[in-house]
Design brief:
about 200 residues; seven-stranded antiparallel sheet; Protein Transport Mog1p, Chain A; single chain; two-stranded antiparallel sheet; 3 helices; alpha+beta
């Protein structure tokens, strides 16, 4: 059974990403440029962030990635495309045909969630609006988390944002859905061609 943890360098990046100046001098300004797509799970899945978000190269592993608004990762200001400040984690696991999605209990089991504000689901997706202890100072205790079946794999996602920020409101559901839809579309497209992406570091 897969344990759906939302690990990663959230605490280290949160305040820097969420308080980065609007001029594009964020946490990645002196590092390599962030990614707009990345091959995960040994190339089986191509992760596509929502509009205005990029993948932090330093976080990338075979089954894990952390995303933030592109300008807070050092990209040009215009790459933000009006997206709200936020941090997204994505964790992947292989899934055989017929394997169920993580349940609401699976998604919440390790998150110390105190209340589910809203839940929506379909055959291949579960999305929750929940509250619980924030993973880092500066982030709201209200956040989004969800799971979806994507190309023979299951991805579990969490979206955090600053208190009173747009990412923790209704717009957050749209952001998570964009990640699911964009990644699914890229997987489908890649079955008939080759997409250029940077392979992740080895690890979990």
């Amino acid at each position: 059974m897969t344990t759906w943890t939302f690990k990663g360098p959230i605490a280290a990046l949160a305040l820097l990403a969420l308080t980065a100046c609007e001029g594009g001098q964020g946490i990645g300004a002196q590092a390599q440029k962030p990614l707009t797509a990345a091959r995960m799970m040994s190339g089986a899945v191509i992760l596509v962030p929502p509009s205005g978000f990029c993948i932090d190269r330093g976080s990338l592993r075979a089954s894990f990635a952390l995303m933030a608004r592109c300008d807070t990762l050092g990209a040009a200001p215009e790459t933000a495309r009006g997206a709200p400040l936020g941090l997204i984690t994505a964790s992947f696991a292989a899934a055989a045909d017929g394997d169920p999605l993580p349940s609401q209990g699976d998604l919440l089991a390790t998150a110390s969630v105190t209340r589910v504000l809203k839940a929506q689901s379909s055959k291949d997706m579960l999305l929750l609006h929940a509250s619980g202890p924030a993973p880092s100072k500066g982030l709201s205790d209200v956040h989004w988390r969800g799971a979806a079946r994507l190309g023979g794999h299951i991805v579990a996602v969490a979206l955090y944002g600053p208190r009173d920020g747009r990412a923790i409101g209704p717009e957050g559901a749209v952001i998570v859905q964009q990640l699911f839809d964009g990644t699914r579309a890229q997987i489908d497209a890649a079955r008939g061609g080759t997409a250029k992406t940077t392979p992740p570091k080895k690890g979990s």
